[in-house]
């Protein structure tokens, strides 16, 4: 295939994807210096990302998806066509794509100021101040809400994490990595798919059954909020047994903070109490609601936006897919009250979402171990957990972070507490995982 320069960057062949450039494989090899290690921005369970420069000097990030996904050319083109119509200031824009035999590549705009993961956990970086943390949380929430509620078909990201929230030079957040996204029609409550994502962020129902909904993304975003609040990583093998999981560690303290208004046990000590108290409370309320074990009891992302940003700034919302009223700031007070009830388990949001409720039943798709486990009432678990942790004030020092784009890879099944702990020791906090089943301990 012979490419030619047209407009910005390289272009070759027809253009079936909403004005996005169709790059040849050879062209992308050229702009990334042969996909060289020097150009490598990061790698994970789904492929590698390389930095490149188009003919006009514009920097791009080229994602080379792993071979063997089973996705055909027609399916890939259809997905690119939909993703190419997504335009929002808090979403990384797709520049183009490439199909060459088994190779599938996506070309995104390059965002220069690294990732939220880097700024929270990077070695030797300045402490991210509260104003920036709040700005990043609101921006990334708006981007994800747009995918869920203003795109048709709706887009479920399925790998929300701090490493996929990029930061520009104005400290605005842009959600990245649509190469993993799944499309969901409005008539389906879930998409059944092979479990893919990053350990520590996976919603429990998605991890156990492979049934993916927008509430799976909401759980993952709740973990991101907990990272912003606490400064801790989602999984930290250096913590005492039982505290490796950020969500498990945080649950009793979230309840304590909501009941008493005392956030001291949760807040990142590096902030040195330099934060806006009411903003912190709003974020804690949102995080607690997002990481509810029951998927239908989690909020929609539009509600999370209102909880974080009571002013409901409309200026940065694209209305290309319809005049959404999801961000009506008049709903803020009502949402906060509902979030409090959700955090304590007294409200179910099934009616807000055409949801089959399969995660409240013992689904036949779950493993025998998971089906046969005895389940105590969720809030009783919270209460008992709080009693065990009420004198626990320890927050860890951050360990060295690897390259901000990079993550380790592992896959397999996790069949019990001992193996889960062994996995913590092997992989630390950044493992892309395949399907697995719950063991004796399970996830929050």
TrEMBL record:
The keyword Membrane applies. GO terms for molecular function: ATP binding; protein serine/threonine kinase activity. It is found in: Cell membrane. The keyword Ubl conjugation does not apply. Its main location: membrane. Residues 358-444 are annotated as: Disordered. This is non-specific serine/threonine protein kinase.
């Amino acid at each position: 295939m012979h490419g030619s320069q047209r407009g910005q960057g390289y272009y070759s062949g027809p253009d079936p994807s909403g004005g996005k450039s169709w790059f040849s494989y050879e062209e992308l090899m050229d702009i990334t210096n042969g996909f060289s290690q020097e150009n490598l921005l990061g790698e994970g369970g789904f492929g590698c990302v390389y930095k490149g420069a188009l003919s006009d000097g514009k920097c791009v990030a080229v994602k080379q998806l792993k071979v063997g996904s089973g996705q055909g050319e027609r399916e890939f083109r259809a997905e690119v066509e939909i993703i190419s119509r997504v335009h929002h200031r808090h979403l990384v824009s797709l520049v183009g794509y490439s199909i060459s035999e088994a190779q599938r590549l996506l070309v995104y705009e390059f965002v220069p100021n690294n990732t939220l993961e880097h700024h929270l956990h990077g070695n030797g970086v300045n402490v991210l101040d509260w104003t920036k943390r709040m700005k990043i949380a609101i921006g990334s929430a708006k981007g994800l809400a747009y995918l869920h509620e203003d795109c048709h078909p709706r887009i479920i990201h399925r790998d929300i994490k701090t490493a996929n929230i990029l930061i520009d030079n104005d400290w605005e957040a842009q959600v990245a990595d649509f190469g993993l996204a799944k499309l969901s029609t409005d008539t389906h409550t879930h998409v059944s798919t092979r479990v893919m994502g990053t350990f520590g962020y996976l919603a429990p129902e998605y991890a156990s059954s492979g049934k993916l909904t927008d509430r799976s993304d909401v759980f993952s975003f709740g973990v991101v909020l907990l990272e912003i609040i606490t400064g801790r990583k989602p999984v930290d093998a250096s913590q005492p047994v039982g505290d490796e999981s950020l969500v498990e560690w945080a649950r009793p303290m979230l309840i304590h903070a909501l009941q008493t208004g005392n956030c001291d046990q949760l807040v990142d000590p590096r902030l040195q109490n330099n934060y806006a108290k009411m903003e912190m409370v709003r974020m804690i309320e949102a995080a607690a609601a997002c990481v509810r074990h029951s998927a239908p009891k989690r909020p929609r992302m539009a509600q999370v936006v209102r909880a974080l940003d009571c002013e409901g700034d409309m200026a940065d919302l694209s209305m290309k897919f319809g005049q959404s009223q999801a961000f009506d700031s008049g709903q803020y007070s009502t949402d906060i009250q509902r979030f409090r009830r959700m955090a304590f388990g007294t409200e179910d949001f099934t009616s807000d979402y055409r949801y089959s409720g399969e995660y409240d039943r013992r689904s036949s798709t779950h493993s025998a171990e998971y089906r046969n486990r005895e389940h105590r009432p969720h809030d009783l678990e919270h209460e008992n957990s709080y009693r065990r942790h009420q004198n626990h004030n320890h927050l860890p020092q951050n360990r060295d972070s690897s390259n901000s784009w990079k993550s380790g890879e592992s896959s397999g099944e996790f069949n019990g507490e001992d193996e889960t702990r062994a996995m913590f020791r092997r992989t630390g906090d950044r493992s892309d995982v395949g399907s697995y089943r719950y063991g004796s301990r399970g996830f929050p």
